[in-house]
Amino acid sequence: MKFPFRHLPAATGGQLAPRPVVDVWLEGIDVAPLGCLVDSGALRTRFSRELAIAAGIELDSSHAERFAVGGQVVEAAPARVNLSLGADEALHTWDAPVWFCDPWPFAFQLLGLEGFLRHFRTTVSGYQEWIECKPER
Amino acid sequence: MTRTVQISKQRFTLDSDEIVRSVSSVLPEPIHEHYVVVGGRRFPPKQVIALATGLDRADFTTHQARRILRGLGFPAARRGNAGASATCETEGATEPSSVEALRPHFGEWVAVRADEVLVGASTPAEVIAWLSRHDQKADSLFRVAADEASAGGAAPS
Hints:
The complex is a heterodimer of chains A (137) and B (157). By secondary structure, chain A is mostly beta strands. Chain A contains one helix and ten strands; from the N terminus they run ββββαββββββ.
């Protein structure tokens, strides 16, 4: 599955740098997949807590953690969820640990090693601005 | 800009600034064919006129609503076929690319399909509820970042 980089406008005019974003379905939300930034430097997969609420996902508060990101303290709690990438016959679904964070002031959800890169062989062409994800099995 | 118009045998004085205000807290309904751009967002013309006048939508036609709103200076256009980029009909209405379509939505969660923003709102729950209510599916749901840091995620481990 190959995806073009995602382009966003900049508030100051023009565009932000295009980024490797893929659209991942989260169980419980069937009207739209979530735009997710693939981040090879991130260990964990992190989504906005608001999405867990919208999807009716129960979080494991016994494993909640706090960390600093982007100049603010964020609380995160994990849940094991089904994620899917692709569509129709090419749809690939896997079970992933996702840390749901509050607040999450970012544009995209974050796909890290756990929860995504362990499941997909991922090729990125920054020059041609595409990302390709092949399921490992 | 202000204009006095007659709709369904009633006279209304409509002001463009007031129309912008009246739709500012309203989510646009799905666009079937025609739309007008109000406050940087696309609305079905009948939705805007119904909000501005309090009339029932059965009391006027889409073409009537479109003509009135164009007369008040709002760009009006028609969607292309099968989700293709829209084509503009009016002078001064420039069709946004996917990036330009996102520009009015800084800080909002949006649902996009092809190059079109279906809906933008302050929470993902509102966007999801809107999609469900209108039986719509989007290609992607995300928040429109205003700067590189928000777009990049400043990823922790």
